[in-house]
Amino acid sequence: MTLTGMTPAAQPADTHCPYCSLQCGMRLRRVVSPPPDGPGVAVEERPEFPVNRGALCGKGRSATAVLAPGVRLTAPLVRDRRTGRLREADWDEALDRAAGGLADAAARYGRDAAGVFGGGGLTNEKAYLLGKFARVVLRTANIDYNGRFCMSSAAAAQRAAFGLDRGLPFPLADIARTGCLILVGGNPADTMPPAMRYFQGQQAAGGKLVVVDPRRTRTAETADLHLRPAPGTDLALALGLLHLVVAEGRVDEEFVAARTTGWEQAHAAAMAHWPERVERITGVPVAALRRAVELFCDAPTGMVLTARGGEQHSKGVDTVGAWINLCLATGHAGRPFSGYGCLTGQGNGQGGREHGQKADQLPGYRSITDPAARAHVARVWGVDPDTLPGPGRSAYELLDTLGTDGGVRALLLMGSNPVVSAPHASHVTERLRALDSLVVCDVVRSETAELADVVLPTAQWAEEEGTMTNLEGRVILRRAALAPPPGVRTDLDVLHGLAERLGVEKGFPTAAEEVFEELREASAGGQADYSGISYARIRAEDGVFWPCPSAEVGRRPHPGTPRLFHDRFATPDGRARFADVSHRPAAEEPDAEYPLRLTTGRVLAHYQSGAQTRRTPELQRAAPGPFVELHPRLAARLGVAEGAPLTVTSRRGTVTAPARVSDRIRPDTVFMPFHWPGPGRANTLTNPALDPVSRMPEFKVCAVRVEAADAGAGAGEER
Ligand code: SF4
After folding, report:
1. Is the pLDDT of residue 27 over 60?
2. Structurally, how many domains does the chain consist of?
3. Is the pLDDT of residue 581 over 70?
């Protein structure tokens, strides 16, 4: 690997981890004599960055492993028409093939037959330019991204309640100062360990932590109270808590009257969820419900944070709405150290959904159906607003119809690995295979890249500049520490090359800062207003919170907005809106044929589809493969011991993985991590039933049957 691109030579570069939404600050320093097969930079702590203050988890510490030659792609690949295999090609051939495939599909089937699928790990600049590429070059409605699978339910619920969606409406440090924190379906001890200092700080200061999770996770072990509802019943749980708040006279009437609307309906719905009914639905004892309400209402300040466990459901929006209702009714919202927040997942899950790679959005969190928003963005892009397409299909619906009549026939996929990470993954794999043309931009030869007609090797986090927006809404700057190896280009270069080949010569710069300058203008006046943020400011301030308009405040630049909603909510009347929600069952409930619930999630050592972390030796050693976590009583009933091979079957297929026997899980539920492909791929089983509002698939619960695997018991069978 060349080190000549280090900027400036031998100087350390302050940047951020490539993985989760915490976006931990780190310093990269050149290795004087790197081994031939090792990365040319080493990770150091950066204690002055305020979010992680130097702490890194194992994923961050080992992130340079994927920079090493031999691990990553260093030349474009095209599928040889004679042999049917991927072979190396030069960039001109690869880009010609990629652009040709997109153009052919549009010419034969119409513009919407060319599609784009992005990722929540892309920088703001890439996400912005990808959306512009879809709308201006391809003029297709069909663009969406894997962030739809991540935070879309929380985003929709926040917009409904508060008029604005930002993961956390306060800095992470505020968590340490709240009186009672309810954490729903999140396990930061494994997913973002450096964040635990804030949870521990909160308890050390006398605050109470309530964790809602069907598993006794490492986070749950630290809680003052752990509620273990059956997967898919969080909505009933939140309604039951609200019922008790009302029944015990703990409603903050003054706050409800002054700062909210819609209480009557929310109150009526809660009254229909009395504690004994909720205990029957959730399995959480009435006494535990009462204790949770006592802790939350006794505290002078309170927060509810949700993560994927509470959100990835076919009723995810209603579930988050019910938790927000609890905050509003108790007055734990719109005040210092109180409120609802979402622990976003992917590195740029927040920024990725603000700047135009979502099917229904334009940059600045503008709606693609709003004529004024279309006119503003079209002016920045120098096009006629009437040429901009309308909303397209959501992520799963886009994947589900690939290669079909009326569906996308040629797909450009950037920064995503749906063969492992999409629900009903065997079906999605089949649909990807049915495409006329699949173009994948990635740093490694992922499982999805294996199906591609063209694979374009792209630069990685340590080799590029660009902004990311972390879970707090803090816009930070990723800085290049070294040049990408020869044969690798940036995603911005790729979009430039494709646009040029498709007849659009201008408007696709390759310098990230130039793209950001245009993004500022496109976002100006929108909800996610970045117009007052510049690279220089981010460097000087170590991040700026949006919204940050360009207008001055008291003759000084706008300071950004670390805390939202203290004066008013972002709704037209300034009041928060209660959600009118009631419990309903999961899309698939256990029955005689499939008597157990499956829930899925992550492990400490791996990140998302594992495309990078499975290629990192120390992480792969720590967690080498999938497993099925099951309760000792269930294991005894099945007659299996630790490590015995199990088959897990849902209506969508069968997978095989070794048993991990643990009383951390409910006896009626099994857990599988979703990082691996092959016969143990958890997403072979998951249910693509969608939330009617957010279009979030039901990753977190489906009905399964578990059996001891005998030789040849249909491992990895797909239906
Ligand atoms: Fe990276 Fe997240 Fe770990 Fe921080 S917590 S080092 S951002 S994976």
Report:
1. yes
2. 4
3. yes
**Mean pLDDT across 75-84:** 97
Q: Answer yes or no: do 508 and 648 share one domain.
A: no
Provide Rg for the chain, Cα atoms.
24
Q: What is the pLDDT of residues 595-624, one digit of tens each?
A: 999 999 999 999 999 999 999 999 999 999
Same domain, 209 and 304: yes
Residues 382 and 481 in one domain: yes
471 in contact with ligand 1, CB cutoff 6 A: no
Atom of ligand 1 nearest to the CA of 20: 2
Q: Are residues 197 and 301 in the same domain?
A: yes
- What pLDDT digit, counting tens, does each position of 516-550 carry? 999 999 999 999 999 999 999 999 999 999 999 99
Please tell me whether residue 194 adopts helix, strand or coil conformation.
helix
Residue carrying structure tokens 């996610």: 528
Chain-centroid distance, C-alpha 385 = 30
Q: Does residue 229 belong to any structural domain of this protein?
A: yes
- DSSP label at 85? S
Domain co-membership, 504 together with 355 = yes
pLDDT digits (tens, 9 = 90+) for 174-189: 999 999 999 999 999 9
Best residue for ligand 1 mutational test, from 24, 196, 468 (most atoms within 8 Å of Cβ): 24
Q: CA nearest 238: which of 583, 587, 598?
A: 583
Say which CATH number the domain at 507 has.
Answer: 3.40.50.740
Q: Cα(194) to centroid of ligand 1, in Å?
A: 7
Please check whether residue 591 lies inside any domain of the structure: no
> How far is 432 from 169, CA to CA, in rounded Å?
38
Q: Whose CA is nearest to atom 1 of ligand 1?
A: 60
Produce one character per residue of 293-318: b if its CB has 16 or more CB atoms within 10 Å, e if not. bbbbbebebbbbbbbbbbbbbbbbbb
Residue 218 belongs to a domain with what CATH number? 3.40.228.10
- Of 42, 67, 92, the one marking the end of a domain is 67
pLDDT tens string 614-652: 999 999 999 999 999 999 999 999 999 999 999 999 999
> For residue 51, how far is its CA from the centre of ligand 1 (angstroms)?
11
pLDDT at 445: 97
Residues 358 and 292 in one domain: no
User: How far is residue 207's CA from residue 134's CA, in Å, rounded to a whole number?
Assistant: 48
Domain membership flag for residue 620: yes
Q: Whole-angstrom Cα distance, residue 392 to residue 394?
A: 7
| Alpha-carbon torsion angle 77, 80, 86, 89, nearest 10 | -20
The rounded Å distance from CA 61 to ligand 1 centre is: 8
Q: Which of 46, 67, 88 is the last residue of a domain?
A: 67
Q: Which secondary structure element, helix H or strand E, spans residue 281, and what is its range? A: helix 275-282
Helix (H, G, I), strand (E, B) or coil at 242: helix
Q: What's the mean per-residue pLDDT of the chain?
A: 95
Q: Write the residue with the smallest CA distance to atom 4 of ligand 1.
A: 24
What does the alpha-carbon distance between residue 475 and residue 120 come to, in Å, rounded to a whole number?
A: 15
For the CA of 18, the nearest atom of ligand 1 = 1
Sequence-ordered alpha helix ranges (H) in 607-702: 617-622, 632-638
Interstrand relation of 645-650 and 225-227 (parallel, antiparallel or unpaired)? unpaired
Region 389-407 average pLDDT: 97
The parent domain of residue 15 ranges over 7-67
Residue 72 lies inside a defined structural domain of this protein: no
| Model confidence pLDDT, tens digit, residues 107-149 | 999 999 999 999 999 999 999 999 999 999 999 999 999 999 9
Does 410 share its domain with 530? yes
User: Does residue 451 sit in the same domain as residue 504?
Assistant: yes
Has residue 716 got a pLDDT over 60? no
